[in-house]
Amino acid sequence: MDTLHYLTGFGNEHETEALPGALPVGQFSPQQCPYQLYAEQLSSTAFTAPRAGNRRTWMYRLRPSVAMGEFAPLHHEMWKTAPQNVATPPNPMRWDPLPLPEHPTDFIDGLITVALNGDAKAQLGMGIHVYRANTDMGNRVFYNADGEMLFIPQQGGLKAETELGILVVNPGEILVIPRGIKFRIAPLDGPIRGYLCENYGAPFVLPERGPVGANGYANDRDFQYPVAWFEDRDEPFELLAKFCGGLFTAPVSHSPLDVVAWTGNSAPYKYDLARFNVMNTVSFDHPDPSIFTVLTSPSDTEGWANCDFVIFPPRWMVAEDTFRPPWYHRNIMSEFMGLVEGVYDAKETGFVPGGMSLHNAMTPHGPETEVFEKASQAELAPQRYEATLAFMLESRYVIEPTRFALDTPHRQRDYQQCWNGLRKHFNGQR
Q1: Is residue 58 assigned to a domain?
Q2: Is 329 annotated as a binding residue?
Q3: Are 186 and 292 part of one and the same domain?
Q4: Homogentisate 1,2-dioxygenase C-terminal domain spans which residues (predicted)?
Q5: Angstrom distances, CA of residue 207 to CA of 26, 152, 273, 310
Q6: Where in the sequence numbering do the catalytic residues fall?
Q7: Which domain holds residue 232?
Q8: Is 335 marked within a binding site?
Q9: Residue 60 assigned ligand-binding role
Q10: Is the pTM of this model over 0.90?
Q11: What's the domain count of the chain?
Protein backbone atom coordinates (compact mmCIF):
# COMPACT_ATOMS: atom_id res chain seq x y z
CA MET A 1 0.00 0.00 0.00
CA ASP A 2 1.16 3.61 -0.64
CA THR A 3 1.68 5.07 2.84
CA LEU A 4 2.41 8.58 1.59
CA HIS A 5 -1.06 9.58 0.51
CA TYR A 6 -2.41 12.27 2.78
CA LEU A 7 -5.73 13.50 4.09
CA THR A 8 -6.10 17.29 4.19
CA GLY A 9 -7.79 19.96 6.26
CA PHE A 10 -6.83 21.24 9.71
CA GLY A 11 -8.89 19.67 12.50
CA ASN A 12 -11.21 17.90 10.07
CA GLU A 13 -13.05 14.70 10.94
CA HIS A 14 -11.10 12.20 8.82
CA GLU A 15 -11.64 8.53 8.15
CA THR A 16 -9.23 6.06 6.57
CA GLU A 17 -8.74 2.30 6.45
CA ALA A 18 -5.82 0.10 5.44
CA LEU A 19 -8.15 -2.84 4.72
CA PRO A 20 -11.46 -2.39 2.87
CA GLY A 21 -14.45 -2.36 5.17
CA ALA A 22 -12.39 -2.12 8.38
CA LEU A 23 -14.32 0.95 9.53
CA PRO A 24 -17.71 0.11 11.08
CA VAL A 25 -20.62 1.98 9.52
CA GLY A 26 -23.10 3.79 11.74
CA GLN A 27 -21.67 2.62 15.07
CA PHE A 28 -18.24 3.32 16.55
CA SER A 29 -18.07 0.27 18.82
CA PRO A 30 -20.30 -2.55 17.52
CA GLN A 31 -20.58 -5.89 19.29
CA GLN A 32 -18.08 -7.30 16.80
CA CYS A 33 -15.86 -5.02 14.70
CA PRO A 34 -14.93 -5.93 11.10
CA TYR A 35 -11.92 -8.29 10.85
CA GLN A 36 -12.41 -9.04 14.58
CA LEU A 37 -10.59 -5.82 15.46
CA TYR A 38 -10.79 -4.02 18.79
CA ALA A 39 -12.39 -0.57 19.02
CA GLU A 40 -10.48 2.00 21.08
CA GLN A 41 -11.12 5.72 21.49
CA LEU A 42 -8.41 8.30 22.17
CA SER A 43 -9.64 11.65 23.55
CA SER A 44 -7.20 14.57 23.62
CA THR A 45 -9.79 16.98 25.03
CA ALA A 46 -12.38 16.46 27.75
CA PHE A 47 -15.50 14.51 26.75
CA THR A 48 -17.60 17.63 27.34
CA ALA A 49 -15.38 20.12 25.49
CA PRO A 50 -17.46 22.30 23.12
CA ARG A 51 -18.19 20.54 19.85
CA ALA A 52 -16.06 22.90 17.75
CA GLY A 53 -12.97 22.20 19.88
CA ASN A 54 -13.62 18.59 20.86
CA ARG A 55 -10.88 16.23 19.69
CA ARG A 56 -11.13 12.47 19.68
CA THR A 57 -10.33 9.56 17.37
CA TRP A 58 -11.73 6.03 17.14
CA MET A 59 -9.14 3.37 16.32
CA TYR A 60 -9.72 -0.19 15.12
CA ARG A 61 -6.68 -2.24 16.02
CA LEU A 62 -5.30 -5.76 16.31
CA ARG A 63 -5.05 -5.50 20.11
CA PRO A 64 -6.14 -2.76 22.53
CA SER A 65 -3.40 -0.60 24.04
CA VAL A 66 -3.91 -2.14 27.46
CA ALA A 67 -2.35 -5.41 26.21
CA MET A 68 1.11 -4.64 27.60
CA GLY A 69 3.35 -5.11 30.63
CA GLU A 70 3.76 -2.78 33.59
CA PHE A 71 5.73 0.45 33.36
CA ALA A 72 9.02 0.95 35.17
CA PRO A 73 10.97 4.25 35.48
CA LEU A 74 13.58 4.99 32.82
CA HIS A 75 16.24 7.59 33.61
CA HIS A 76 16.83 10.38 31.08
CA GLU A 77 19.26 12.96 32.39
CA MET A 78 18.69 15.57 29.68
CA TRP A 79 14.88 15.56 29.30
CA LYS A 80 13.44 18.00 31.85
CA THR A 81 9.86 18.97 32.67
CA ALA A 82 8.35 22.14 34.15
CA PRO A 83 8.31 23.32 36.81
CA GLN A 84 12.02 23.41 37.54
CA ASN A 85 14.07 24.99 40.32
CA VAL A 86 16.65 27.00 38.39
CA ALA A 87 17.18 30.74 38.92
CA THR A 88 16.46 32.61 35.67
CA PRO A 89 18.34 35.87 35.02
CA PRO A 90 16.63 38.52 32.83
CA ASN A 91 19.58 38.66 30.43
CA PRO A 92 19.15 38.17 26.70
CA MET A 93 20.69 34.81 25.80
CA ARG A 94 21.85 33.07 22.66
CA TRP A 95 23.26 29.65 21.84
CA ASP A 96 25.26 28.08 19.02
CA PRO A 97 23.83 24.88 17.47
CA LEU A 98 24.13 21.78 19.62
CA PRO A 99 26.41 19.22 17.92
CA LEU A 100 25.14 16.07 16.29
CA PRO A 101 25.78 12.85 18.22
CA GLU A 102 29.01 10.98 17.51
CA HIS A 103 27.72 7.55 18.57
CA PRO A 104 24.54 5.68 17.53
CA THR A 105 21.71 7.73 19.07
CA ASP A 106 17.98 7.56 18.47
CA PHE A 107 15.39 10.32 18.83
CA ILE A 108 14.65 9.61 22.50
CA ASP A 109 18.25 9.31 23.66
CA GLY A 110 19.41 12.39 21.72
CA LEU A 111 16.81 14.81 23.09
CA ILE A 112 18.04 17.74 25.24
CA THR A 113 15.82 20.24 27.08
CA VAL A 114 16.85 23.87 26.62
CA ALA A 115 14.05 25.83 28.33
CA LEU A 116 10.75 25.40 30.17
CA ASN A 117 7.78 27.28 31.53
CA GLY A 118 4.48 26.59 33.24
CA ASP A 119 3.62 23.31 34.90
CA ALA A 120 3.06 20.07 33.01
CA LYS A 121 0.85 18.64 35.77
CA ALA A 122 -1.36 21.75 35.64
CA GLN A 123 -1.48 21.52 31.82
CA LEU A 124 0.00 24.93 31.08
CA GLY A 125 3.24 26.10 29.50
CA MET A 126 5.73 24.16 27.41
CA GLY A 127 9.09 22.47 27.20
CA ILE A 128 11.54 23.54 24.49
CA HIS A 129 14.00 20.89 23.37
CA VAL A 130 16.56 20.11 20.69
CA TYR A 131 16.32 16.65 19.14
CA ARG A 132 19.32 14.96 17.51
CA ALA A 133 19.55 11.45 16.10
CA ASN A 134 21.56 9.35 13.68
CA THR A 135 19.70 6.04 13.96
CA ASP A 136 16.08 4.89 14.04
CA MET A 137 14.21 3.77 17.15
CA GLY A 138 14.02 0.13 16.08
CA ASN A 139 11.48 -1.68 18.26
CA ARG A 140 11.04 1.27 20.59
CA VAL A 141 7.72 3.15 20.39
CA PHE A 142 6.93 6.31 22.36
CA TYR A 143 3.95 8.37 23.48
CA ASN A 144 3.74 11.58 25.49
CA ALA A 145 0.99 11.96 28.11
CA ASP A 146 2.34 15.35 29.22
CA GLY A 147 1.76 17.27 26.00
CA GLU A 148 1.49 17.39 22.25
CA MET A 149 4.75 17.62 20.32
CA LEU A 150 5.59 20.20 17.64
CA PHE A 151 8.64 19.19 15.55
CA ILE A 152 10.56 21.88 13.65
CA PRO A 153 13.22 20.06 11.58
CA GLN A 154 16.42 22.01 10.97
CA GLN A 155 18.76 19.41 9.45
CA GLY A 156 17.74 16.20 7.68
CA GLY A 157 14.37 14.68 6.91
CA LEU A 158 12.60 12.31 9.25
CA LYS A 159 9.95 9.62 8.98
CA ALA A 160 7.35 9.51 11.74
CA GLU A 161 5.67 6.11 11.92
CA THR A 162 2.60 6.65 14.08
CA GLU A 163 -0.28 4.41 15.07
CA LEU A 164 -2.48 6.41 12.65
CA GLY A 165 -0.10 6.32 9.69
CA ILE A 166 3.23 7.56 8.34
CA LEU A 167 4.35 11.16 7.77
CA VAL A 168 7.62 12.20 6.10
CA VAL A 169 8.80 15.63 7.24
CA ASN A 170 11.70 17.73 5.97
CA PRO A 171 13.26 21.06 7.00
CA GLY A 172 10.81 23.78 6.02
CA GLU A 173 7.90 21.65 7.25
CA ILE A 174 6.54 21.03 10.74
CA LEU A 175 5.00 17.98 12.39
CA VAL A 176 2.52 17.92 15.28
CA ILE A 177 1.81 14.70 17.20
CA PRO A 178 -1.11 14.93 19.64
CA ARG A 179 -0.82 14.02 23.29
CA GLY A 180 -1.01 10.24 23.74
CA ILE A 181 -0.39 9.15 20.12
CA LYS A 182 2.26 6.41 19.80
CA PHE A 183 5.07 6.86 17.29
CA ARG A 184 8.69 6.23 16.41
CA ILE A 185 11.14 8.45 14.52
CA ALA A 186 13.65 7.41 11.86
CA PRO A 187 16.20 9.62 10.05
CA LEU A 188 15.70 9.51 6.29
CA ASP A 189 19.11 10.29 4.82
CA GLY A 190 21.68 10.92 7.53
CA PRO A 191 21.75 12.59 10.93
CA ILE A 192 18.82 14.78 11.94
CA ARG A 193 18.54 17.80 14.20
CA GLY A 194 15.69 20.10 14.99
CA TYR A 195 13.66 21.92 17.59
CA LEU A 196 10.80 20.42 19.58
CA CYS A 197 8.05 22.21 21.47
CA GLU A 198 6.34 19.99 24.08
CA ASN A 199 3.05 21.83 24.55
CA TYR A 200 1.59 21.11 27.99
CA GLY A 201 -1.40 23.40 27.43
CA ALA A 202 -4.42 23.51 25.14
CA PRO A 203 -3.89 21.84 21.74
CA PHE A 204 -2.60 24.01 18.93
CA VAL A 205 -5.26 25.62 16.74
CA LEU A 206 -5.19 28.06 13.85
CA PRO A 207 -5.25 31.69 15.00
CA GLU A 208 -8.21 33.89 14.19
CA ARG A 209 -7.67 36.10 11.13
CA GLY A 210 -9.50 39.16 12.46
CA PRO A 211 -9.63 42.06 9.96
CA VAL A 212 -7.54 40.06 7.48
CA GLY A 213 -10.76 38.24 6.63
CA ALA A 214 -11.35 34.85 5.07
CA ASN A 215 -7.93 34.29 3.51
CA GLY A 216 -4.30 34.57 4.61
CA TYR A 217 -1.93 33.07 7.16
CA ALA A 218 -2.09 29.25 7.27
CA ASN A 219 -5.04 27.80 5.35
CA ASP A 220 -6.89 24.72 6.63
CA ARG A 221 -6.57 22.83 3.33
CA ASP A 222 -2.75 22.79 3.46
CA PHE A 223 -2.47 20.62 6.60
CA GLN A 224 -1.81 16.96 5.81
CA TYR A 225 -2.80 13.90 7.85
CA PRO A 226 -1.66 10.28 7.37
CA VAL A 227 -3.68 7.46 5.87
CA ALA A 228 -4.16 4.26 7.86
CA TRP A 229 -1.19 1.89 8.04
CA PHE A 230 -0.40 -0.89 10.47
CA GLU A 231 2.20 -3.42 11.59
CA ASP A 232 1.26 -7.03 12.36
CA ARG A 233 4.45 -8.10 14.16
CA ASP A 234 4.42 -10.54 17.07
CA GLU A 235 7.83 -9.90 18.61
CA PRO A 236 9.19 -8.00 21.62
CA PHE A 237 8.76 -4.21 21.59
CA GLU A 238 9.56 -1.53 24.16
CA LEU A 239 6.85 1.05 24.85
CA LEU A 240 8.19 4.34 26.24
CA ALA A 241 5.92 6.90 27.89
CA LYS A 242 6.43 10.44 29.16
CA PHE A 243 4.10 10.86 32.13
CA CYS A 244 3.99 13.40 34.96
CA GLY A 245 7.48 14.61 34.08
CA GLY A 246 9.08 11.16 34.08
CA LEU A 247 10.07 8.69 31.39
CA PHE A 248 8.83 5.10 31.71
CA THR A 249 9.35 1.83 29.84
CA ALA A 250 7.10 -1.21 29.49
CA PRO A 251 7.41 -4.50 27.54
CA VAL A 252 4.96 -5.26 24.74
CA SER A 253 4.78 -8.60 22.94
CA HIS A 254 3.75 -7.06 19.61
CA SER A 255 4.01 -3.85 17.64
CA PRO A 256 1.92 -1.08 19.26
CA LEU A 257 1.48 0.44 15.78
CA ASP A 258 -1.37 -1.91 14.86
CA VAL A 259 -4.28 0.40 13.97
CA VAL A 260 -5.96 -0.91 10.82
CA ALA A 261 -8.49 1.92 10.48
CA TRP A 262 -9.39 5.15 12.23
CA THR A 263 -11.85 8.01 12.17
CA GLY A 264 -11.69 11.27 14.10
CA ASN A 265 -10.00 14.65 14.38
CA SER A 266 -7.15 14.02 16.85
CA ALA A 267 -4.33 12.80 14.66
CA PRO A 268 -0.76 13.69 13.67
CA TYR A 269 -0.41 16.30 10.94
CA LYS A 270 2.27 18.10 8.99
CA TYR A 271 2.40 21.49 7.29
CA ASP A 272 4.68 22.96 4.65
CA LEU A 273 5.68 26.41 5.94
CA ALA A 274 6.19 27.61 2.35
CA ARG A 275 2.39 27.57 2.05
CA PHE A 276 1.99 30.24 4.72
CA ASN A 277 0.43 33.34 3.17
CA VAL A 278 2.43 36.27 4.58
CA MET A 279 0.39 39.40 5.24
CA ASN A 280 2.95 42.20 5.52
CA THR A 281 2.88 45.97 5.53
CA VAL A 282 2.82 47.94 2.25
CA SER A 283 2.67 51.39 3.83
CA PHE A 284 4.64 52.07 7.03
CA ASP A 285 5.85 50.56 10.30
CA HIS A 286 7.07 47.08 11.08
CA PRO A 287 3.94 45.14 12.12
CA ASP A 288 3.68 43.06 15.27
CA PRO A 289 5.07 39.52 14.80
CA SER A 290 1.59 38.16 15.57
CA ILE A 291 0.82 38.49 11.84
CA PHE A 292 3.21 35.57 11.28
CA THR A 293 1.43 33.16 13.67
CA VAL A 294 0.97 29.68 12.20
CA LEU A 295 -0.45 27.91 15.27
CA THR A 296 -1.54 29.04 18.72
CA SER A 297 -2.19 27.26 22.01
CA PRO A 298 -4.70 29.50 23.85
CA SER A 299 -4.56 30.20 27.57
CA ASP A 300 -7.44 31.08 29.89
CA THR A 301 -7.04 34.77 28.96
CA GLU A 302 -8.13 35.68 25.45
CA GLY A 303 -5.25 36.92 23.31
CA TRP A 304 -2.54 35.86 25.80
CA ALA A 305 -1.24 32.64 24.32
CA ASN A 306 0.07 29.70 26.26
CA CYS A 307 2.28 29.34 23.18
CA ASP A 308 2.29 30.92 19.73
CA PHE A 309 4.30 29.32 16.93
CA VAL A 310 5.42 32.18 14.68
CA ILE A 311 7.60 32.09 11.54
CA PHE A 312 9.67 34.63 9.61
CA PRO A 313 9.78 33.12 6.10
CA PRO A 314 10.88 34.48 2.71
CA ARG A 315 8.81 37.60 2.08
CA TRP A 316 8.69 41.03 0.48
CA MET A 317 9.38 44.13 2.56
CA VAL A 318 7.56 47.02 0.91
CA ALA A 319 7.04 50.06 3.11
CA GLU A 320 7.32 53.86 3.06
CA ASP A 321 9.80 55.82 5.19
CA THR A 322 10.11 53.19 7.88
CA PHE A 323 12.68 51.22 9.85
CA ARG A 324 12.28 47.72 8.44
CA PRO A 325 13.93 45.39 10.96
CA PRO A 326 12.06 44.77 14.22
CA TRP A 327 12.09 47.89 16.40
CA TYR A 328 13.67 47.82 19.85
CA HIS A 329 11.09 46.47 22.24
CA ARG A 330 10.20 45.08 25.66
CA ASN A 331 7.26 42.67 25.84
CA ILE A 332 5.05 41.09 28.46
CA MET A 333 5.36 37.97 26.29
CA SER A 334 8.56 35.90 26.34
CA GLU A 335 10.26 34.95 23.06
CA PHE A 336 12.36 31.91 22.18
CA MET A 337 13.75 31.90 18.63
CA GLY A 338 15.43 29.38 16.37
CA LEU A 339 16.78 29.54 12.83
CA VAL A 340 16.13 26.78 10.30
CA GLU A 341 18.05 28.31 7.40
CA GLY A 342 19.55 31.52 6.08
CA VAL A 343 19.94 34.79 7.98
CA TYR A 344 17.47 36.51 10.31
CA ASP A 345 17.17 40.18 9.35
CA ALA A 346 17.64 41.63 12.87
CA LYS A 347 20.67 39.46 13.69
CA GLU A 348 22.99 39.14 10.70
CA THR A 349 25.90 37.62 12.65
CA GLY A 350 26.05 35.12 15.50
CA PHE A 351 22.53 33.74 15.04
CA VAL A 352 23.08 30.77 12.74
CA PRO A 353 20.95 27.80 11.54
CA GLY A 354 20.48 25.43 14.45
CA GLY A 355 21.11 28.24 16.95
CA MET A 356 18.68 29.67 19.51
CA SER A 357 17.97 32.87 21.41
CA LEU A 358 15.85 33.82 24.41
CA HIS A 359 14.41 37.23 25.28
CA ASN A 360 12.19 36.99 28.32
CA ALA A 361 9.38 39.18 29.62
CA MET A 362 10.42 42.87 29.73
CA THR A 363 14.00 42.07 28.68
CA PRO A 364 14.93 44.73 26.08
CA HIS A 365 16.10 43.51 22.69
CA GLY A 366 16.17 44.41 19.02
CA PRO A 367 18.55 44.83 16.08
CA GLU A 368 22.26 44.60 16.68
CA THR A 369 24.25 47.81 16.19
CA GLU A 370 25.37 47.21 12.61
CA VAL A 371 21.86 46.24 11.52
CA PHE A 372 20.44 49.42 13.06
CA GLU A 373 22.98 51.66 11.34
CA LYS A 374 22.51 49.99 7.96
CA ALA A 375 18.71 49.97 8.12
CA SER A 376 18.60 53.63 9.18
CA GLN A 377 20.44 54.64 5.99
CA ALA A 378 19.05 52.05 3.56
CA GLU A 379 17.42 53.07 0.29
CA LEU A 380 13.76 52.09 0.71
CA ALA A 381 13.17 50.15 -2.48
CA PRO A 382 11.07 46.95 -2.54
CA GLN A 383 13.20 44.26 -0.92
CA ARG A 384 12.72 40.50 -0.75
CA TYR A 385 14.17 38.31 1.99
CA GLU A 386 15.11 35.04 0.29
CA ALA A 387 16.35 31.68 1.60
CA THR A 388 15.51 32.44 5.21
CA LEU A 389 13.33 30.73 7.78
CA ALA A 390 13.34 31.71 11.45
CA PHE A 391 10.68 30.85 14.01
CA MET A 392 9.58 32.04 17.42
CA LEU A 393 7.85 30.29 20.31
CA GLU A 394 6.13 33.09 22.22
CA SER A 395 4.45 32.60 25.59
CA ARG A 396 2.69 34.61 28.29
CA TYR A 397 4.77 32.67 30.85
CA VAL A 398 8.44 33.38 31.55
CA ILE A 399 10.66 30.91 29.66
CA GLU A 400 13.28 29.47 32.00
CA PRO A 401 16.52 28.04 30.59
CA THR A 402 17.60 24.72 32.06
CA ARG A 403 20.80 24.31 34.04
CA PHE A 404 22.30 22.68 30.94
CA ALA A 405 21.40 25.71 28.79
CA LEU A 406 22.84 28.16 31.31
CA ASP A 407 26.13 26.29 31.72
CA THR A 408 26.79 24.77 28.28
CA PRO A 409 29.85 26.03 26.37
CA HIS A 410 27.48 26.47 23.41
CA ARG A 411 25.92 29.49 25.15
CA GLN A 412 27.29 32.73 23.67
CA ARG A 413 28.54 34.58 26.73
CA ASP A 414 29.29 37.68 24.64
CA TYR A 415 25.80 37.98 23.11
CA GLN A 416 25.04 41.25 24.93
CA GLN A 417 28.01 42.86 23.19
CA CYS A 418 26.20 42.97 19.84
CA TRP A 419 24.53 46.15 21.17
CA ASN A 420 27.71 47.72 22.62
CA GLY A 421 28.18 50.08 19.68
CA LEU A 422 24.80 51.76 20.02
CA ARG A 423 25.58 55.44 20.47
CA LYS A 424 23.67 58.63 21.07
CA HIS A 425 22.68 60.41 17.83
CA PHE A 426 20.71 63.17 19.55
CA ASN A 427 21.87 66.70 18.70
CA GLY A 428 18.93 68.83 19.82
CA GLN A 429 17.70 69.35 16.24
CA ARG A 430 15.06 67.53 14.21
Answers
A1: no
A2: yes
A3: no
A4: 275-426
A5: 33, 19, 15, 11
A6: 286
A7: 70-273
A8: yes
A9: no
A10: yes
A11: 2
